Description:
The chain has 117 residues and is mainly alpha-helical. The chain has helices at 22-35, 46-56, 59-67, 72-86, 92-101, 105-111. The chain is built from six helices and no strands. It starts with 21 loop residues before the first helix and ends in a 6-residue tail after the last helix. The mean pLDDT is 88.
Amino acid sequence: xxxxxxxxxxxxxxxxxxRIKTETKDKIDKKLSSINKSEEFGKVNYDRLIxxxxxxxxxxxxxxxxNSTITWKLEEPRLMKLWSKMNRKTTTEEWKxxxxxxxxxxxxxxxxxxxxx
Length: 117
């Protein structure tokens, strides 16, 4: 009596989509294309590349990434709060007046997270 048993393994993979710009996708495709040129290794896919990058990122890289997103709109309230803490309580009007008169140039150059000239 010949009996054949088959084992079917059901795998569930959850895929999610992420929104990226076309330019970013093109850069990733180009990089993956160059990575996958060699026949000696298995193919690297999007998921494997992203996992590798997430594991490789350093705290300094994260800080640099965060600093690159700072705008003056975000920086001004922080600087005003710091000025008030270091000197005296300042109203928004007083802050704007000092800012427009150029009295805060040295303070901003010293304490701003945005590179100033």
